[in-house]
Inverse folding.
C-alpha cells in the first residue's frame, strides 16, 4: 500500500519535473535568444565593472566598506533579473497593458517627486523609498513607449481616433514634467525616441521634421534660459574655456587602456581614481581602462546587437503596434547607450545618462530590465493557443 | 459641428472591443491538424493599416542602418582614443589604495619659508583586535559596535572569527577609548598611530595638498613629498602672510562680484619662487571630505583657460626683441582686420592709428594681431615655447595640465593667439611667462621649494632693454589705459588687464559670462613680484557702473594685494624720482639707446609717441 503510494508520488514528481523541463524548453524556444543572450552578456559585464568602478567612488566618499556600492548593486540585480524573466512569459497584449500601467504609475510618481521629493543638486528627480532613492522618470520611459505605440496603432487602425494627437499630448505632459525637474538629458532621450516611433508608425515626413524643429527650438530655449545647460554646451564646443575635468579625465582613463587594457603591474597608476562619477556616467571609460579597446568594443557591439536585432524583429511584424513598440524599446536602450558612451568619448556634451545594465543605479537597472523584458515578450514566437485578441492592430 | 465630432469618437472609445474583427481566410479550404484539433488556420488579419505596415518596413530598415552607423562611429572613436597610446602623463599621480607605500621613518613635515608649520605628524591612539585572545567574537563585536559609530557588529564578528588580526581605526577619541576600557574585552588593543595634521587649516590648502593614509600624498606639496621622496623638514617657498593677503582679497572680491571661482598666484620674479597661490573655493585638508571634489582642484595649475589680453605683453615683447617693432611703430586700427574669413575687431575702437604703447594701453586686438603677423607663426611659436606656454609645465607638485592650442597654426591662429584667444594655458604658466617679460628677460620655471642663493637655470628670452621698455609700456597701461584701478600709490605697479569673454552658441560673445584677470608686477621700476588674479564669471555691481571687465573687478584686487604685500617684504612706497630712476636705469646705462637721458632732450611734440615724455608727464615734474 505505502509502496504504491510512494511510487505514485515519485511518478507525480517526475511528471511535474518533466512538465517543468518541457515548459522551460518551450519558453527557451519561444523567446528571442539573440536578445536574451546579448542582455545576459551585458549584465555580466555590468557586474564585473561594478567591482572595478564603484569601490573608487566608495573610497572617495570615505565609506568604510569599499564594496558598499557593489553590494547595493547586487541587491538590485535580484529583482531586475526576476522582472526580466517574469516579463518574458507575458503575451504581447499583457505586455501592452502592463506597459500602460507602468506608464501611469511612473507619471504619478514623477508628479509626487516634484511635490514631495528631495532636491538633490538643484533637481527634483527622486523619491525616497525605504533608504533607496527611486527615479520614476527611468521607469516612465519604457511605459511611455508602450503607451505611445498603442495610441499610434489605434490611431492608424481607426482614422477617426486621434491616437497620434493623444500620444503627442502625453509626450508634451511628460516633457513638462521632465523639464520641471529639470532633467534635460531624459527629456532629450524621450524626444528622440518619440521621433523614432512617430517615424516608424508611418507619420509623414512633415510631422517628423516639424517635431525635430520644435526640439531644436526647445534646445535653444534651454540654452538661453538654463545656465547649466548653456555652460555644458559651451564647454563642449570650446574646450579651452572652463573646466572639462570629467571629460578630460575620462579620455585619459580610456587612453590608458590600449588594446587589451592597462597593465596594472607597472609603476604608473590607474587613472580611474581621479575620475568622478566613475561608477555611473563614466563607467564606459573605466571599461576602457580595465580591459581596453576589446571590452569597449564588445559593449558597443552588444548594444548594437540589441538595437539591430529588435529592428529586424520589428520589420518581420505586421502590426503597427508591434513595430512601433519594438522599435521604440530598442531605440530607448540604444540611444541611452549611445548618449552615455558618446559623452565618455567626448562626442557629445556631458549629460547625466546611465549606461543600461552597466552603470550603478537601482532605478536605471530596473528600468533597463523592464525595457528588455517587454522587448522579449513582444518578440516571442507566436503561439498557436493565442487567441485573436492577441492580434494587436 | 463639435457635437457631431465628439459623439462618434466617444462611442468608438467605449465600443471598440465590440467591433467585429475582419478576418480574411486565404487558404485552399483543407483542414489543418494540430495539437488543438482540426481547424482552419488564421492566416492574415486584415486591418486598415495593413498596407501601411508593409510600407513601414523600409523605414525600420533605414533606422536600423542609422543605428549601425552611429555605433560604428563610436567604435572608431573608441579605437582612436584607446589605441593612440597611453595618456602622456597622468595629471595627478594617484596611488592605488590597495598598494600602500612602504613606510620608513616618519613622513616629512612641511613648513613655509619662515618656518611656520604647514603639515605635521600627530600621534593617535587606534583600535585593533588580536583575535586569538578574544573569548567571544559575538560579545566583542557587539561591544565595539556599541561604542564606535559605523561599525557593523555582524560583519565585525565574522572578521574576528576568520582573521587573526583586525585593524579597525587609526584614531579613536579619548571618550571612546574610556568606554572600551570599561567594557574590558579581551583581545582589544589600543595601537599607537600617527595622523597628518594641517595647522593652517584651509590656508594654502591647495599648496599643502592632501595626504591619505595608505595612498600617500595625492595633491600639492604632500604629493611632492612622495614624488621627490623628500624627508625631514621640507621648507617651501610659500609665505603664509602673503598667502593670507591673497586669499582674503580674492575671497572678498569673489563674494562682492558673485564670481563662480577666483584664483591668484604670487611669484618672485628673481628666482621663480611661488610665494602664494590660492584657488577658491577651497577646502580644509584636515577634513577634505567635507568639501565637494570640485573645491579640491587647484585651478591655477590644474585647469587651463583662454586668458585673453594678458598675452598681448608677450606678443609685444617678442616684437620688440625681434626688432620688428619699437616705440615709434604705428598700427592702423581704423578698419577691422580680416584674415582667412575671420574678422578681428577691438572691444573699444580707438583712433585711426595707435602707437606701440597705445596698442597695449587700449588693449587693441588688431594691433597685437598685426605685430604677430609681421613676426610670423614660427617666431611666435618659438617665443611661446621658450616662455613655457606650449609644453606641460613641470613643477615639484603633481598638478599639471598640458596647454591646448590648434595643431594647424596658420595666419588666423597667429593673429588670435597674439591676443590670447585660441590658446589655453594654466594660470601658473602665464604668470611665469609674464615674469620673464618684466624681470629683465629671464624665464624661471616656477618652484615651490625655498631657493637658496641665485638660480642658475634661468633661460634668457628677452634682452634687458626689451624688458625695460615693456616695463614702461606696461606702466602706461595703468596710468592711462584700461587698468587705472590697479594703481597702488608709491609702488608704481605695471600690468595688463585681461577680460576673456566666453563665447555664446551664436558665435558672438555673451555679455555677462567672462573671465576677468589682471596680471601685473610691482614695484614697477624694479619688479620683485608678479601677481596674477582672476575672477571666473564675475557679475557687475552698481559700484562698477554695471561693468564686470577686468579693469573694474580684477585690477582693484591686484592693487589691494600690492598695497598689503609690499610692507610684508620690506618694500615701501617711494617717490617719483626714485621710480623714474628705476624705470630709466636700463636706458641710461646703454649709450647706444636713442632715448632721452634727461628731461631736456625730449624733442617729440606728441607725448603718445614719446614714452619717456609720457612717463614724465604722468609722474609729474
Amino acid at each position: 500500500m505505502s509502496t504504491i503510494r510512494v511510487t505514485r508520488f515519485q511518478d507525480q514528481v517526475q511528471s511535474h519535473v518533466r512538465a517543468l523541463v518541457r515548459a522551460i524548453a518551450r519558453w527557451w524556444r519561444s523567446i528571442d535568444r539573440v536578445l536574451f543572450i546579448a542582455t545576459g552578456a551585458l549584465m555580466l559585464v555590468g557586474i564585473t565593472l561594478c567591482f572595478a568602478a564603484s569601490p573608487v567612488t566608495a573610497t572617495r566618499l570615505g565609506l568604510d566598506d569599499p564594496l558598499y556600492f557593489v553590494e547595493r548593486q547586487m541587491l538590485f540585480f535580484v529583482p531586475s533579473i526576476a522582472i526580466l524573466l517574469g516579463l518574458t512569459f507575458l503575451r504581447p497584449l499583457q505586455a501592452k497593458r502592463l506597459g500602460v500601467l507602468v506608464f501611469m504609475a511612473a507619471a504619478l510618481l514623477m508628479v509626487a517627486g516634484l511635490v514631495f521629493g528631495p532636491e538633490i543638486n538643484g533637481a527634483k528627480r527622486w523619491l525616497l523609498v525605504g533608504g533607496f532613492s527611486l527615479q520614476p522618470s527611468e521607469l516612465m520611459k519604457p511605459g511611455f513607449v508602450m503607451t505611445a505605440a498603442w495610441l499610434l496603432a489605434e490611431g492608424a487602425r481607426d482614422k477617426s481616433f486621434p491616437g497620434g494627437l493623444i500620444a503627442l499630448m502625453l509626450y508634451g505632459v511628460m516633457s513638462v514634467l521632465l523639464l520641471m525637474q529639470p532633467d534635460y538629458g531624459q527629456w532629450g532621450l524621450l524626444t528622440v525616441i518619440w521621433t523614432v516611433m512617430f517615424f516608424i508608425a508611418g507619420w509623414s515626413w512633415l510631422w517628423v521634421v516639424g517635431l525635430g524643429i520644435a526640439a531644436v527650438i526647445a534646445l535653444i530655449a534651454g540654452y538661453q534660459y538654463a545656465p547649466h545647460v548653456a555652460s555644458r554646451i559651451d564647454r563642449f564646443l570650446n574646450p579651452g574655456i572652463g573646466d572639462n575635468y570629467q571629460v578630460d579625465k575620462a579620455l585619459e582613463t580610456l587612453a590608458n587602456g590600449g588594446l587589451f587594457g592597462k597593465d596594472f603591474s607597472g609603476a604608473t597608476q590607474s587613472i580611474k581614481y581621479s575620475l568622478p562619477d566613475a561608477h555611473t556616467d563614466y563607467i564606459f571609460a573605466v571599461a576602457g581602462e580595465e580591459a581596453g579597446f576589446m571590452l569597449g568594443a564588445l559593449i558597443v557591439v552588444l548594444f548594437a546587437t540589441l538595437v539591430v536585432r529588435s529592428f529586424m524583429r520589428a520589420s518581420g511584424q505586421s502590426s503597427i503596434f508591434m513595430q512601433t513598440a519594438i522599435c521604440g524599446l530598442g531605440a530607448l536602450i540604444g540611444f541611452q547607450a549611445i548618449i552615455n558612451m558618446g559623452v565618455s568619448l567626448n562626442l557629445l556634451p556631458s549629460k547625466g545618462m546611465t549606461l543600461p545594465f552597466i552603470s550603478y543605479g537601482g532605478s536605471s537597472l530596473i528600468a533597463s530590465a523592464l525595457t528588455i523584458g517587454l522587448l522579449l515578450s513582444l518578440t516571442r514566437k507566436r503561439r498557436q493557443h493565442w487567441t485573436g485578441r492577441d492580434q494587436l492592430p | 459641428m463639435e457635437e457631431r465630432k465628439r459623439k462618434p469618437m466617444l462611442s468608438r472609445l467605449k465600443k471598440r472591443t465590440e467591433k467585429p474583427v475582419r478576418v480574411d481566410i486565404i487558404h485552399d479550404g483543407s483542414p489543418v491538424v494540430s495539437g488543438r484539433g482540426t481547424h482552419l488556420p488564421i492566416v492574415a488579419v486584415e486591418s486598415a493599416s495593413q498596407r501601411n505596415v508593409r510600407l513601414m518596413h523600409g523605414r525600420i530598415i533605414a533606422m536600423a542602418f542609422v543605428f549601425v552607423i552611429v555605433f560604428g562611429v563610436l567604435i572608431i572613436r573608441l579605437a582612436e582614443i584607446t589605441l593612440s597610446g597611453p595618456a602622456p602623463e597622468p595629471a595627478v599621480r594617484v596611488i592605488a589604495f590597495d598598494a600602500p607605500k612602504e613606510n620608513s621613518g616618519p613622513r616629512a613635515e612641511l613648513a613655509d619659508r619662515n618656518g611656520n608649520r604647514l603639515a605635521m605628524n600627530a600621534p593617535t591612539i587606534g583600535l585593533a583586535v588580536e583575535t586569538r585572545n578574544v573569548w567571544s567574537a559575538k560579545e566583542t563585536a557587539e561591544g565595539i559596535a556599541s561604542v564606535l559609530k559605523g561599525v557593523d557588529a555582524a560583519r565585525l564578528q565574522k572578521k574576528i572569527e576568520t582573521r587573526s588580526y583586525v585593524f579597525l581605526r587609526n584614531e579613536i577619541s579619548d571618550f571612546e577609548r574610556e568606554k572600551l576600557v570599561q567594557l574590558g574585552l579581551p583581545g582589544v588593543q589600543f595601537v599607537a598611530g600617527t595622523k597628518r595634521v594641517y595647522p593652517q587649516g584651509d590656508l594654502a590648502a591647495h599648496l599643502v595638498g592632501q595626504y591619505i593614509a595608505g595612498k600617500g600624498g595625492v595633491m600639492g606639496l604632500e604629493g611632492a613629498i612622495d614624488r621627490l621622496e623628500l624627508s625631514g623638514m621640507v621648507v617651501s617657498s610659500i609665505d603664509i602672510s602673503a598667502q593670507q593677503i591673497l586669499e582674503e582679497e580674492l575671497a572678498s572680491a569673489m563674494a562682492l562680484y558673485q564670481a563662480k571661482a577666483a584664483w591668484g598666484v604670487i611669484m618672485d620674479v628673481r628666482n621663480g619662487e611661488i610665494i602664494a597661490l590660492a584657488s577658491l573655493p577651497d577646502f580644509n585638508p584636515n577634513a577634505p571630505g567635507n568639501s565637494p571634489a570640485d573645491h579640491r582642484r587647484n585651478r591655477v595649475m590644474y585647469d587651463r583657460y583662454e586668458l585673453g589680453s594678458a598675452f598681448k605683453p608677450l606678443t609685444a615683447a617678442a616684437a620688440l626683441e625681434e626688432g620688428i617693432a619699437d616705440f615709434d611703430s604705428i598700427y592702423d586700427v581704423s578698419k577691422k582686420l580680416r584674415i582667412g574669413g575671420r574678422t578681428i575687431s577691438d572691444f573699444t575702437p580707438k583712433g585711426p592709428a595707435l602707437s606701440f604703447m597705445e596698442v597695449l594701453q587700449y588693449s587693441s586686438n588688431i594691433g597685437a594681431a598685426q605685430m604677430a603677423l609681421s613676426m610670423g607663426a614660427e617666431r611666435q611659436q618659438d617665443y611661446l615655447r621658450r616662455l613655457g606656454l606650449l609644453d606641460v609645465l613641470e613643477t615639484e607638485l603633481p598638478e599639471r595640465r598640458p596647454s591646448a592650442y590648434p595643431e594647424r597654426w596658420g595666419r588666423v591662429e597667429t593673429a588670435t593667439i597674439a591676443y590670447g584667444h585660441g590658446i589655453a594655458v594654466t594660470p601658473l604658466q602665464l604668470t611665469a611667462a609674464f615674469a620673464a617679460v618684466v624681470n629683465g628677460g629671464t624665464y624661471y620655471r616656477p618652484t615651490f621649494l625655498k631657493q637658496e642663493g641665485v638660480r642658475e637655470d634661468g633661460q634668457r628670452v628677452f634682452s634687458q632693454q626689451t624688458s625695460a621698455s615693456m616695463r614702461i609700456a606696461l606702466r602706461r597701461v595703468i596710468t592711462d589705459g584700461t587698468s587705472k584701478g590697479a594703481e597702488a600709490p608709491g609702488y608704481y605697479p605695471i600690468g595688463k588687464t585681461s577680460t576673456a569673454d566666453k563665447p555664446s552658441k551664436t558665435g558672438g560673445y555673451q555679455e555677462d559670462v567672462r573671465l576677468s584677470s589682471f596680471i601685473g608686477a610691482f614695484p614697477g621700476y624694479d619688479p620683485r613680484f608678479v601677481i596674477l588674479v582672476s575672477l571666473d564669471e564675475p557679475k557687475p555691481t552698481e559700484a562698477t557702473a554695471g561693468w564686470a571687465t577686468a579693469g573694474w573687478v580684477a585690477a582693484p584686487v591686484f592693487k589691494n594685494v600690492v598695497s598689503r604685500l609690499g610692507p610684508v617684504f620690506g618694500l615701501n612706497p617711494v617717490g617719483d624720482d626714485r621710480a623714474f630712476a628705476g624705470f630709466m636705469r636700463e636706458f641710461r646705462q646703454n649709450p647706444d639707446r636713442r632715448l632721452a637721458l634727461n628731461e631736456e632732450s625730449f624733442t617729440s611734440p606728441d607725448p603718445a609717441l614719446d614714452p619717456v615724455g609720457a612717463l614724465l608727464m604722468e609722474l609729474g615734474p
